[in-house]
Amino acid sequence: MCSHYQGIQGRERFERHFGIGLPEDAGQADVWPGYRAMFIRNTPPGAAPAAGRLQALTGLFGLVPHWSTDLRITRSTYNARSETAMEKPSFRDAWRRGQHCIIPAEALFEPDWRSGRAVAARMGSADGAPLGVAGLWSCWREQEQEIFSFTMLTVNADHHPVMREMHKPGDEKRMVVVVPPALYAHWLHLPARESLGFLQSQPSAALAQLA
C-alpha cells in the first residue's frame, strides 16, 4: 500500500516521458492522502480536437465517490485492492465505468520493517525513469463545483523480492501496479471486464529500492 509519494514537478521531464503538457497547477510535490496531485486520463468525448487523446488533471489523492458527503473520505480511499475494487462502494462505480488513470510519480515511500521498526524506504524505477501507477479517477460535484480525485490500485506482493519486506510483519504484503510506458494507452482504454487480468499480469520487478 502507498500513502506517500513524490509527484513529478519538472515540466521537461514530465512532458518528455508522458507525451502531454504539464498542467499549470501540478499539485504538491510531496503527496499524502487528501493532497492535490496529478493524474492522466483519456480526454472525454466532446472535447476540442486540439486537446489531444490524453489530458493531465489535478485532483485529490484519495478517491471521492459521488455519494460522499465530504472530502474526508480521502483518508481511507487512496489505495484500492484490485481484487475487490469492483465490489467496494467507494470504488465500484469508477471501476465499472472503466475510469482508468495513470498517476505520475517520481518515487513511492513504503515502511521497511527489516530493522525491527518502520523506516521509510524510497521506491522507484530501477532505470531512473518516472513511474506511471495504475489508478481509478472520479469526479465529485457539490452544487456547481467539480472536484477530481484518484486512487492507486494494488496487488499482492508476497513474492516481490523487495516489497515483501515492507510493512509490519504479519500484515499482507501489497504493492501498487506500475504500468510500463508502452502500455499506458492500453490501460487507459481497457474495458472494465479486462481490468483485473491486466493488473495481475504486470511485471512485479518494476519497483526497486532507491538509495
Structure description:
The chain is mainly beta and 211 residues long. The chain has a single domain, classed as hypothetical protein yedk fold (Alpha-Beta Complex), CATH 3.90.1680. 12% of the residues lie in helices and 34% in strands. The chain has four helices and twelve strands. It has helices at 11-18, 92-96, 184-189, 195-201; strands at residues 5-6, 30-31, 36-42, 54-61, 79-81, 100-105, 107-112, 119-125, 131-142, 145-156, 174-176, 207-209. The strands form two sheets. Strands 3, 4, 5, 6, 9, 10 and 11 form a seven-stranded mixed β-sheet that branches. Strands 2-1-7-8-12 form a five-stranded antiparallel β-sheet, with no helix packed on it.
Write the layout of secondary structure elements.
Blueprint: E1 5-6, H1 11-18, E2 30-31, E3 36-42, E4 54-61, E5 79-81, H2 92-96, E6 100-105, E7 107-112, E8 119-125, E9 131-142, E10 145-156, E11 174-176, H3 184-189, H4 195-201, E12 207-209
Parallel strand pairs: 4-10, 5-10
Antiparallel strand pairs: 1-2, 1-7, 3-4, 6-9, 7-8, 8-12, 9-10, 10-11
Return the CATH architecture.
Alpha-Beta Complex
The first-level CATH class is given as: Alpha Beta
* Global morphology: globular
Indicate the mean pLDDT: 90
Strand residue content: 25-35%
Q: Which value, in Å, is the CA radius of gyration?
A: 16 Å
Helix count from the secondary structure assignment: 4
Brief overview:
12% of the residues lie in helices and 34% in strands. The protein is mostly beta strands.
Distinctive features:
34% strand, mainly beta, 4 helices, hypothetical protein yedk fold, seven-stranded mixed sheet, 211 residues
